From TrEMBL:
This is Alanine racemase. It comes from the Bacteria. InterPro entries: Ala_racemase_N (IPR001608), PLP-binding_barrel (IPR029066). It holds the Pfam family Ala_racemase_N. Signal peptide: none annotated.
């Protein structure tokens, strides 16, 4: 039994090449679950692309990247003396650290005198960084390789980035997240003597949604009568077919982050989904026989029980069915790259 990510390699790589062409100086982001593909595979893809640098999310991800990618590795997590002081990778000259505070920079340089750094500015994202008022002096002290800015999602970033660029006129290289190709072009026109290097993950690896698909194996399919109880919770079911498929909570099936619900429509959908969940009528992300059947009960660790309505032809054991999943929270058993 397996839940696999199937990838059309040629189409997937064409999308990578397009993104790279549209965003010169791109730094691939390879973090977390590797966007469903796994970090090692993405490091190998970055090698194939020939980029000079990749970015990882945390120091915990650093050893794997250093072992599978031959060039520079930028750590997006800020260096913190209280947490990272004793890490053996601090002395690797391929590592580029993110710093946001003078004390942390002093500690890092006490461990590795020529440690390579970028300074992070505190943007409207508000997560971490050096405030704009203190940034110019800190950039001079750090003698780093640039300034990095983590922006909110959406557009409209040019004005905010411009304020940073104008405040630190001596800094040439800017690492930027969540900027569009149009914004990059606008920034380059405004500041032709600066280098803007976009950090890109989702658009690079998941840009062409038709290039990949998650599929699950059918493990069992049998008719059930109305009122028959199944599963751990022994809930009675309507008549139809019980279909057991590979893929459960350990794969990320039905695991979701809190909804933003920013619009009236999104809030209404969230309320409706909550009502369905309370009534044990949650639609699954699996497509079987052209429909998305509901869960017979919450997913198990490695498989899920689905209720296929009467009148829908059941699949055969061994068939595969597509699964709609958010790949940033997916952990497939294997990646099948054609």
């Amino acid at each position: 039994m397996a839940l696999n990510l199937h990838v059309d390699g040629a189409r997937w790589r064409d999308a990578q090449a397009d993104t790279l062409r549209q965003r010169p100086g791109l730094v691939p982001v390879i973090k977390g679950n590797g966007y469903g593909f796994g970090r090692d595979l993405l490091c190998a893809e970055a090698e194939r692309l020939g980029v000079p640098m990749v970015a990882v999310g945390t120091y915990a991800e650093l050893p794997g990247a250093l072992g599978t990618f031959a060039r520079d590795v930028l750590v997006l997590e800020p260096y913190r003396a209280a947490i990272h002081h004793d890490l053996p990778q601090l002395r690797d000259t391929r590592v580029v650290h993110t710093v946001t505070a003078p004390d942390d920079l002093t500690d890092l340089r006490s461990v590795q005198g020529d440690a390579r750094v970028v300074v992070e500015g505190l943007t409207s994202m508000g997560r971490f960084g050096m405030p704009l008022s203190s940034l110019p002096g800190f950039v001079t002290t750090a003698r780093g390789e640039g300034v990095t800015l983590h922006l909110p999602l959406g557009s409209g970033h040019v004005a905010e980035i411009s304020r940073f660029v104008e405040a630190v006129p001596d800094n040439r290289t800017w690492f930027l997240s969540h900027v569009t190709t149009a914004e990059l072009a606008d920034l380059q026109r405004r500041f032709p003597d600066r280098e803007f290097r976009p950090r890109v993950g989702t658009d690079l690896w998941l840009g062409d949604k038709a290039a990949y698909e998650v599929r699950a194996h059918v493990l069992e399919a049998r008719p059930i009568a109305k009122g028959e109880r199944v599963g751990y919770r022994q809930r009675p079911q309507p008549a139809g077919h019980l279909v057991v498929v590979s893929g459960g909570t350990s794969h990320g099936v039905a695991m979701e982050s809190p909804a933003a619900a920013a619009t009236v429509r999104q809030r209404a959908i969230a309320v409706a989904e909550g009502a369905l969940e309370a009534a044990h009528r949650v639609r699954s992300p699996f497509t079987v026989g052209g429909v998305m059947p509901r869960f017979a009960e919450p997913p198990h660790m490695q498989c899920s029980l689905l209720l296929l309505p009467e009148g829908v032809a059941p699949p055969a054991v061994g068939d595969t069915v597509p699964v709609r999943m958010r790949l940033t929270t997916a952990y497939p058993d294997a990646v099948v790259l054609s």
